[in-house]
Amino acid sequence: MKKTGLLISFTIISITIGLAQPEKIPIAIQKNDIETHVRFLASDELRGRDTGSPELEIAARYIAEVFRSSGLKPAAGAAGFFQPVSLVSEKPPASASFFVMDEKLEIGKDLLVLSGDSVLIEAPIVYANYAQPEDLEALDVKGKIVVAKAGTPGITNPQSYFFSSKDKVAHVAAKGGLALVELYHSSQMPWSLLVRYLNTEQLVLSEAAEGKAKLPLIWVNNDKGKWLAILKDQDGENATLQIAEKERKTIPAKNVVAMVEGTSRKLKNEFVILSAHYDHVGVGSSSDSQDTIYNGARDNAVGTAALLEAARYFGKNPPKRSVLFLAVTAEEKGMLGSRWYADHPLIPLDQMVFNLNTDGAGYNDTTKVTVIGLERTTAEPSLLAASQEAGLAIIPDPEPEQNLYDRSDNASFAAKGIPAVDFAPGFTAFDQDIMKYYHQAADEAETLNFDYIERFVEAYIMAAQKVANMPNRPFWKPGDKYEREGKELYGQ
Ligand SMILES: [Zn+2]
Q1: CA of 198 to the centre of ligand 1 (A)
Q2: What is the pTM for the complete model shown?
Q3: By Cβ atoms counted within 10 A, which residue in 270, 294, 372, 434 is the most buried?
Q4: Where in the chain are the domains?
Q5: Cα(10) to centroid of ligand 1, in Å?
Q6: In Å, what is the CA distance from 85 to each residue of 56, 251, 277, 333, 335?
Q7: Domain 90-249 class in CATH
Q8: Which residues make Cβ contacts (< 8 Å) with residue 293, sequence separation at least 6?
Q9: How far are the Cα atoms of 164, 221, 246, 398, 459 from residue 87, in angstroms, in the given order?
Q10: Do residues 299 and 444 lie in contact, with contact meaning Cβ atoms separated by under 8 Å?
């Protein structure tokens, strides 16, 4: 039902905008230059641009050289075009166990360690239902191991378990608890899949690695209800929780950052951030396919090429506001490069008035661009006008239930209050045309329609130009999820 309604409204928007005749493109973008960027970045020699790989360092160097040759300057206060990003890879603890009576739970089998390392705790168990504030209120959890059901009553979505766990850990720690053991069950993600996903090496920001050691958070397999019964029964009895120290390794990573100063004396202290992630997922291990290199042409060599051509264009044609160019690393590892930049900005964040990110899963409609978050900010008319001038219709997020807005780097800036959108090649649904390439080895430069990519890049650059020249700075539309953060950031 939801989908039908959306499709109808898209059709109307597309028709309305699609009627406009493509105008002469006012800027000189060369298809061949775009193709060169994409073919280089998505080449087999760059081996899928995995974070931490030497090939991603080569990509960073390429981007920096395009910035330099386009006449861009390092961001004020930065020594060069590189911003080191402090990443750490963490292996799961080599051992972790939970002894209750004569039963023993072990890591990777019936137990997962979500946080905490290097602990040995012997303490009484206290059963706390869902460990929500009202559950903990009447309980004495001080010096005890709190056992609770994962998630919140009535919610079975594992993603929401992660969010509620964070709050619960904070509540338990505030009341003096020593650890939180949650009983996991979700029909949406079976335990075996969860183990495969979580009990493996992960990249995290170094600060998160330090912060993580605070209170141990353990998930226990409760698929058959066995452990809930046992642990409830052991309320008040002693248990032992042991977690070995995690093996950590520093991972080299960098964002590539540059700026162009605006021409307006009044507006040049305001910046539009143009961003694109330049990493991808590297080389696969599957032996069933000949090609194991995930080239990431669509995701996100195309977006990076758009950023590079924007650098060339604005290097010669600066707009009224200044522009910050940000090629970010480790998006595929959880938007780590953009999160790092947002936490360690080279220019104060309250001078950033908008983030025009470009990242996409691919396209299935070469008459359109898709802007995730289109309707959320007052830059909408500028974005519409830009696409129209490039001869492309524009549609908003076709699949809001996928939560795409919060799955790319624009979310790192939105979370700080900066109005942000993701400007993506035209896709109308996650259909076969998208999935055939999305995070597949088949996502190669040879499979791209460069006539369309050229038009897409033009639309992106014109969108950036129009936003950078808006008489009033853009902001969130009233009632947006990030409006409050925006007001805080800009002191409104
Ligand atoms: Zn991407």
Answers
A1: 21
A2: 0.84
A3: 372
A4: 2-85+253-490, 90-249
A5: 23
A6: 13, 9, 13, 13, 12
A7: alpha beta
A8: 44, 47, 48, 283, 284, 441
A9: 25, 30, 15, 33, 34
A10: no
- The conformational region for residue 343 under phi > 0 = left, psi -120 to 50 = alpha, else beta, is alpha
The DSSP bridge partners found for residue 180 are: 146, 217
Rounded Cα distance between 216 and 113, Å, is: 8
pLDDT at res. 288: 59
CA of 131 to the centre of ligand 1 (A): 36
Q: How far is the CA of 154 from the centre of ligand 1 (A)?
A: 33
Q: Which of 408, 423, 416, 309 is nearest to 353 (CA)?
A: 416
Query: Residue 258 forms beta bridges with which residues?
Result: 325
- Do 294 and 48 contact (CB within 8 A), yes or no? yes
Lowest-pLDDT range of 7-16, 95-104, 119-128: 7-16
Dist. CA 127–CA 125, nearest whole Å: 7
What is the CATH T-level fold of the domain 2-85+253-490, as seen in this structure? Answer: Aminopeptidase (3.40.630)
Tell me which residue of 238, 127, 224, 122 sits closest to 181, measured CA to CA.
127
Q: What is the pLDDT of residue 178?
A: 96
Q: Residue 211: what pLDDT?
A: 59
Q: Which amino acid is at 375?
A: E
Quick one: pLDDT at residue 86? 94
Ligand 1 midpoint to CA 359 (Å): 5
